[in-house]
Amino acid sequence: MSEQNNTVAVTDAPTQPELQRARKRLDALWRRGTDFLGTQYAILGGAMSWVSERNLVSAISNAGGFGVIACGAMEPARLAEEIQATRALTDRPFGVNLITMHPQLTELVQVCLDAGVGHIVLAGGIPPGAAIKAIKDGGAKVIAFSPALVLAKRLVKMGVDALVIEGAEAGGHVGPVSLTVLAQEILPHIQSVPVFVAGGLGRGDALVSYLELGASGGQLGTRFAAAEESIAHEKFKKAFVRAAARDAVTSVQLDDRFPVIPVRALGNEGGRQFVTHQADVIRRFQSGELTREAAQLEIEHFWAGALRRAVIDGDVEQGSVMAGQSVGMVTSVQPVAQIIDDLVEQATVALVRQQRRMDTDG
Ligand SMILES: Cc1cc2nc3c(=O)[nH]c(=O)nc-3n(C[C@H](O)[C@H](O)[C@H](O)COP(=O)(O)O)c2cc1C
Question: pTM for the full model?
Answer without folding.
Answer: 0.95
